Amino acid sequence: MRTLGYAVLGLLAAEPLTGYQVSRRMARPIGYLWTARHSQIYPELRSLEQAGLVRHRVEDGRGPRDTKRYWITGKGKNALRSWVASPLEPPESKSELMLRVRALWLVSPTVARELIEAARDRHVQRRAAYAVEEATFGDPGLLAFDSAAFSSYATLRCGIGHEDQAVGWCDWLLARIPRG
Amino acid sequence: MRTLGYAVLGLLAAEPLTGYQVSRRMARPIGYLWTARHSQIYPELRSLEQAGLVRHRVEDGRGPRDTKRYWITGKGKNALRSWVASPLEPPESKSELMLRVRALWLVSPTVARELIEAARDRHVQRRAAYAVEEATFGDPGLLAFDSAAFSSYATLRCGIGHEDQAVGWCDWLLARIPRG
DNA sequence: TCGCGATATGTAAGTTTCGACATAATCACT
DNA sequence: AGTGATTATGTCGAAACTTACATATCGCGA
């Protein structure tokens, strides 16, 4: 099975969700870890169901079609568990910003400065969004290791560290771009 | 044009390369920013040439076919420059590790510890590889802003910061996983 | 000298992901 | 009363990417 399937299972492990709710969750904050459009989610849920990893029940339909609420099955939870424990491939890490920075010597200092300042702004904004989220956890020291909240908090911590590092790097670079 | 095309143009902007050399460069260190298999590179070079952004000359063939060396054209350099200056979409950031961490509450502390320790090891190793690369730059303070070397060094700095942050986060998490 | 790996370039088939299209109810605002 | 955003679920074709297949030469160690 592919990663998207496990991303969906990971969401359903915490609570039953409709396809629409899954695709909303894949935007933020799960979207900072893995993203998918709704056009991927709905087929994925069907194939997970065919594999016996999730099941659905039809509820009242607010849109043009019926609303289907999905639950994870015991088999699905086991699949998720063995995936977490399975060997992890080295991350692919595609960064369009870094690719552009590699070509920075071709453009003027002004253009370079604009690029890095825009990137810095976005990192500051996301860092602020993370800070808001962090506040909802209360005292993180009280979270039990085997709670879903602690797992979420751990990923949030990584996100915060990542944004802080990125902002610091932008400042480092901006200090080295000559002012026109 | 898509990002892969600009990644290739970025490499050719510094020096003429064969398709094979481009695919080697896309492994490391460019691979930490963007990756592609050779089966993507060769068709991409052809389509870049059709668009007039690169040109090739046939040289001696060591393999079963002719060796083609590619140069970037003036048009290609301009395309690369405007791409660097164009508005940047927010990064997609897919992290399978974070996805697994989000499901960490489902597995035993022992399994969790193994996952994070393995991840930590890989970050330490890559950090060491970066340190070796950094040493090849000599005194970074001497690099001119408009040199390809400075651009490379800037991305390397970001990579180093990223790995350091990741190792720190792994240690933070490991300290919070109960010992079995 | 025999096999193995690296060099070197490509094609073909399959999978995954994206972007656009499609539909319709409900709710808030004007 | 009408307009538009949000909720809600899906299909379809295209683009991007991966994996496997295909081929041939050179250098190196066993």
Assembly of the depicted chains: homodimer
Class by helix and strand content of chain A?
mainly alpha
| Backbone CA Rg of chain A | 20 Å
The helix/strand series of chain A, from N terminus to C terminus, equals HEHHEEHHHH
Q: What is the number of E strands of chain A?
A: 3
How does the overall form of chain A come out from the CA principal axes?
elongated
Strand content of chain A: 5-15%
Major β-sheet of chain A, in short? 3 strands, antiparallel
Provide the residue-averaged pLDDT of chain A.
91
Helix content of chain A: 55-70%
What can you tell me about this protein's structure?
The structure is a homodimer of 180-residue chains. With 180 residues, chain A is mainly alpha-helical. Helices cover 58% and strands 8% of the residues of chain A. The first copy, chain A, has helices at 3-14, 19-25, 38-50, 74-85, 96-102, 109-135, 148-174, and strands spanning 17-18, 54-59, 67-72. In chain A, strands 1-3-2 form a 3-stranded antiparallel β-sheet. In chain A, a hairpin with a 7-residue loop joins strand 2 (54-59) and strand 3. In chain A, helix 1 crosses helix 4 (74-85), helix 2 packs across helix 3 (38-50) and helix 6 runs antiparallel to helix 7 (148-174). At the A-B interface, helix 1, helix 4, helix 5, helix 6 and helix 7 of A face helix 1, helix 4, helix 5, helix 6 and helix 7 of B. The structure holds a DNA duplex (30 and 30 nucleotides).
